[in-house]
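Long-time lurker, first post.

We've been arguing in lab meeting about whether flavin mononucleotide would sit comfortably in this protein at all. Half the group thinks yes, half thinks no, and nobody has a model to point at. So I'm putting the question to the forum: if I give you the sequence and the SMILES, can you give me back a predicted structure of the complex? Inputs are below. Any interpretation is welcome too.
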Amino acid sequence: METLKAITNRKSVRSYNNTPVDKDTIRTIVEAGNMAAGTPMAGKVYYTVISNQDILTQLVASAKGVMQNSGNPMLEKISSNPAFNPIYGAPVAVVISTDKAEDPNTQAMARANAACAGENMLLAATDLGLGSCYLESPTLAFYNPEMRQVVKMAETVQPQAVIVFGHTDDTTPHADRPENPDNIIYID
Ligand SMILES: Cc1cc2nc3c(=O)[nH]c(=O)nc-3n(C[C@H](O)[C@H](O)[C@H](O)COP(=O)(O)O)c2cc1C
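Top reply:
Settle the argument with this. Predicted structure of the protein with flavin mononucleotide, as tokens:
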């Protein structure tokens, strides 16, 4: 029952306050990720847990730099906004990575492993009263080899997602969900 409550209450939070997240809470959330479903056929899932403010600042700068030079007009436009912060000022960012793979099926399974881990972390954070968000754009920071070195990320791994969490003043409920969503079909 409590799990369903966390599922219902989870939403993407994009503003965080200055209250630090204690180490035990960080550990609980990351370990919830590490307990997720996942196929060993795609190798391991790795967690780079960043709560050092200087390194978070470097991560943001690196991601924005990659976006600015991406050649993708939408990414260039978003990142040219000085107020844009791809991790929304969260005090903790967990980079979820998987072993690099050549085979598309293995790549898909690795991404699914990362997504399962990420969702577990979002639900754990929600259960503990924290805001959280599943993010793709900050993974771009690791196209920059220097950023990989800063967090000691091996060349053999592929960053798949960044999960951010922290205390928030955003208490608005999740946007309304339809009662009978048209994307669910029951075959009785
Ligand atoms: C694979 C994936 C990538 C995402 N990337 C981003 C992102 O880069 N930036 C962002 O603000 N939100 C990102 N999100 C969050 C989605 O925008 C959000 O989950 C969606 O709008 C639904 O809102 P909700 O999480 O509040 O239910 C991502 C979510 C997923 C699952």
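For your lab meeting: The chain has a mean pLDDT of 96. The radius of gyration is 17 Å. Whichever side wins, do check it experimentally.
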